């Protein structure tokens, strides 16, 4: 059997932490091999070793049967490896061809031969079914086409083994299926693909073989056809996890949050929210979904007072709050889980107890006569650590010592424990392990069933479908459709996410 990749007994340590422990990972030539595992399982470290970004402390690496020392990405590229990162590395003002050949420009008579570059891109685009216009500027492309440009960048450098890190994170369902078709065409040409993803449904759909990592070690490698999604989760987490749509009673409470024809501008002064109207009732979860960058972040910012409203009204529990300051809005009944926990969710240099105190530092019983009751704060923080299963030595542990998923749990513990009538939840499970997601989803449903009004923003369509009572789809700063999660399809939502109404979609007026 011919292997494109053979990693034998790879161990990689960072100080006393072994990120990879005696890992053996072999990928056959001409297959799509999925590498999955929870956050911190060692996937990224292993791929960085493969691509020459890290040097292993122990183990042997072979490419196409030849033992190699992968001492740098330059060596990896020379050996036919290419890596497409989750966050694209494109220059918006340059054309597709200029981005693809950046740093290795084709020249003629000492000048860049743009015509030859465009012709080469057109040739590769046609050969691999990528369908990209080499003369268009990247700033004018959709996210799905940008990803094709990133793939062409590695193809033009001669890659025959392609590593894709979370390739569908910013794609619509239709764009994801287009990507899978392209990947399958690669393997038909004898190329090899390593596919890293948290979306297990996609792993089951596109891959030939799956390797699962847990705690830096290989749990198992199996043909995908011999696995179910539940078995795959059990291999990753070590127990059964339920991600079925949560049962719920119908929501019939009064309106808690009301946005009417809200408009706002971005940091450059350009329109970013356009006539957005949203209503959220008590005991209801309204989901907001869209390709990242279509106004979801700005929507959260205007509701929480972090971005000014240029037109329209916002009311919370009957109080007009457009352009109110964040403290006033919080006192009016808002709990906010921000999308970027490090920038706005935690003080990483402070303890867990201090972070739990935030927003309560002027309120009894947390404070008495202007003095913080630290014994009470630490007692309550300890209870929340246990309730939310935060992995930390104690409530005195600094947040910066926690993993990303446990940092997120600190934010959730603080905000969910305030018993506010309205919860603004932005990306609740970003960076959180699959096992922890189940608990977070249960807590969101508990908040809903206790009467809270919830606006849930997530880039994970499956998360929205499982939790929301109604789904609003955003495109270009507008609400372009509302769908019922009980009857909608991913295709219907995907069309709306791409700015196209399907025949089934209820397009918002």
Radius of gyration: 25 Å
CATH architecture of the largest domain: 3-Layer(aba) Sandwich
The first-to-last residue Cα distance is: 59 Å
Coarse shape:
globular
Quick one: CATH superfamily of the largest domain? P-loop containing nucleotide triphosphate hydrolases
Q: Point out poorly predicted stretches.
A: 502-509
How many DSSP E strands? Answer: 24
Strand content: 25-35%
Largest beta sheet: what is the strand line-up?
A: 6-9-10-3-11-12
- Which structural class fits the helix and strand makeup? alpha/beta
- Tell me about the biggest sheet? 6 strands, mixed
How many domains in all? 3
Count every helix, treating DSSP H or I runs of 4 or more residues as helices. 17
- CATH fold-level topology of the largest domain: Rossmann fold
Task: Output the CATH class name of the largest domain.
Answer: Alpha Beta
Helix amount, in percent?
25-40%
The overall pLDDT average reads 90
Subcellular location: Cell membrane
Keywords: ATP-binding, Cell membrane, Membrane, Nucleotide-binding, Repeat, Sugar transport, Translocase, Transport
Protein name: ATP-binding cassette domain-containing protein
GO molecular function, one term: ATP hydrolysis activity
